Automatic annotation (TrEMBL):
GO terms for molecular function: oxidoreductase activity, acting on the CH-OH group of donors, NAD or NADP as acceptor; zinc ion binding. Its cofactor is Zn(2+). InterPro entries: ADH-like_C, ADH-like_N, ADH_Zn_CS, ER, GroES-like_sf, NAD(P)-bd_dom_sf, Zn_alcohol_dh. Residues 7-315 form the Enoyl reductase (ER) domain. This is L-iditol 2-dehydrogenase. Keywords: Metal-binding, Oxidoreductase, Zinc. It comes from Sphingomonas gilva. Belongs to the zinc-containing alcohol dehydrogenase family.
Length: 317
């Protein structure tokens, strides 16, 4: 099969790899594509802990496609079934996963990208956030994840204040239901804008969705006393410092909303697929760029550079 590898920092290449064989309880999927995740960017830069080249297909974890082969003992799936999967080598034409790491894609959902793992992350973060009707919620960072969280919070009856750097992202947030949009430029101007929008109460819940130090600092400022700070950004590029004096004084709850339990991740994926089938999530507005597999490097560069109009890239096989 053809598979992409990261050959060196900032350089992707194509390789030929053996077709994976499904073991007992496993399913092989002929991949239609895989989403490109912001978590791919730090490995793409080449930190000290990375080893190159990566395994064929490595870093790809948002794959979808059709069941191609079944290992011994697999039940509930048949060849040709359309599925999304939890796997780690989906930047390739084929990948293998346990049968309990698959989410079925219903026939009612048209052909097209289904990065269900990424959408499932948003659903799991939202569940951990405890957002309810009547609350004021700030979402710091509006990309793929932030836009979906804006929609989910709005649908739950919350008032969403979107804080983001790009004018395009703020328009995206407005389209997904944000009541207020604030440009992420000047730290204290943002705090004052949120105070003005909340009559000085600040926010019941703040979701930080960037994975960067300054937005994390800002998010702490925007939480009201006794409120909740939800860390949805993936902080993988080094340690962070926090203003514990402020967090302590405010008495806020701090939730790290990343899930590692397979069953929880799969439940989020299944909820995501159901939401797509019901039309609750508009992927046409969110999957803005599509690349062939042999242009994975371009997809990663665009995910890093985030030009105007960009939300999420996928590679198609």
């Amino acid at each position: 099969m053809r598979a992409a590898v990261i050959a060196a920092p900032g350089r992707a290449a194509m390789a030929s790899a053996p077709l994976p064989r499904p073991g007992p309880g496993e399913v092989r999927v002929r991949l239609a594509g895989c989403g490109v995740c912001a978590s791919n960017l730090t490995p793409w830069e080449g930190p000290e802990w990375m080893r190159f080249p990566t395994d064929p297909g490595g870093l790809g974890h948002e794959g979808w496609g059709r069941v191609d082969a079944l290992g011994a003992g697999v039940t509930g799936f048949a060849q040709g079934d359309r599925v999304a999967m939890l796997s780690d080598h989906a930047f390739a034409e084929y990948d293998v996963a346990p049968q309990d790491a698959l989410a079925r894609i219903p026939p009612s959902l048209p052909d097209g990208p289904v990065p269900a793992e990424a959408i499932g992350c948003a659903f799991n973060i939202f569940r951990r956030s405890g957002v309810g009707a009547g609350q004021t919620v700030a979402i710091v960072g509006i990309g793929f994840l932030g836009a979906i969280l804006t929609r989910l919070a709005t649908d739950a009856g919350a008032q969403v204040i979107a804080v983001s750097r790009r004018p395009f992202s703020l328009r995206l947030a407005r389209d997904h239901g944000a009541a207020e949009c604030v440009a992420m430029d000047d730290h204290w101007a943002i705090v004052e804008a949120v105070k003005a929008a909340t009559e000085d109460r600040l926010c019941d819940v703040v979701i930080e969705a960037t994975g960067k130090q300054w937005p994390l600092d800002l998010a702490g400022e925007l939480v009201r006393e006794g409120g909740r700070l939800v860390i949805a950004g993936y902080h993988q590029d080094g340690p962070r410092q926090v203003n514990m004096q402020m967090w302590n004084w405010k008495g806020i709850d701090v939730i790290n909303a990343h899930e590692r339990d397979l069953a929880v991740r799969l439940a989020g994926m299944r909820e995501a697929v159901e939401a797509l089938a019901a039309g609750r999530i508009d992927l046409d507005a969110l999957v803005t760029h599509r690349f062939p597999l042999d242009r994975l490097g371009d997809a990663l560069d665009m995910t890093r550079d985030r030009p105007d109009g960009f939300v999420k890239a996928v590679v198609l096989t």
